[in-house]
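Render C4-dicarboxylate ABC transporter substrate-binding protein in 3D.
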Amino acid sequence: MRTRIITPLLLATACGLAATAHAAQWTMATPYGDASFHTQNTKQFAEDVAEATNGELTITVHSGGSLVSHGEIKPSVRRGTIDAGEVFLSVLSNDDPIFEVDTLPGLAGSYDDAYALWEATKPMITELFAYEGLIPLYAVAWPAQGIYTAKPLTDPAQFEGLRVRAPNINTQRFVNNLGGSPTETEESDIPTAFSTGRVDAMITSSATGNAMAAWDYVTDYTDANLWLPKNIVFMSQRSFDRLDEATQEALLEAAARAEERGWQMSRDNNDTSTAALIENGIAVSEPNEAVADALQAAGGKLFADWEARADDDAKQALEAYREQRAD
Ligand code: PCA
């Protein structure tokens, strides 16, 4: 039997769906908790989108890895299980070394440098994302990375056997180069890693040290200005294509604003977080000469290692950055 009688109830339901079909509801995941300025910025972005589109697009942000674990965020957006995601860019380094260029020491040690590095590498990163049906929305740097320890870091020999928490593979390599013993730990797992005695020290920013109450576990922060790594926020091309043009425009405009706001938030957060560390009893200092030399040597090895893995496109992007900074 081919024909179906449409009952008034079904008809009413169908009309109701049609009336709301153009309003899109997106799901987005980030591994970072609500205490992170990145998450605050991303939630603001979602609010901006809802407002700019008069509710035509609403984005629900699931923070703290509550919906999808960090490693599953990009695959989930690719598969279309969720529409958008935020990740620590350098955790994608297994896909291509360009993704970890912002965790190389000696390359970009200020916000201006870090932003220039983002601009120089964005075309290649955008292209690689496009192969997977993904579109970058914006990227924001964390404050510079430094070293948290449970006693003053005065001698590079202290790295010998030190169990150091690291947020990505490249930082683990760096710890290895220093003679330490690295463990990759998500930001949200930092308190457990310390309280269960799995780690003695960590590499991260003032922001994460503050958000994770570092003073509960360590006493010293060596502000070594190692590098300013980024988070990247991206969406599914398919989800984007389903939006009408005006909504797409409003979304991209809100993303541009989120990027600008995020970099300023990062600078501000670095100041407030450093002050909070000090207020809570952490001794903040710069590395002494011996430690600085050891960090530089470990960084040099890291760089050589990266160059051996990177392809010509990645090296050209780096060259473009260097030329831009030399101007
Ligand atoms: N905080 C995140 C990434 C870099 C940072 O400063 C973390 O430590 O996991």
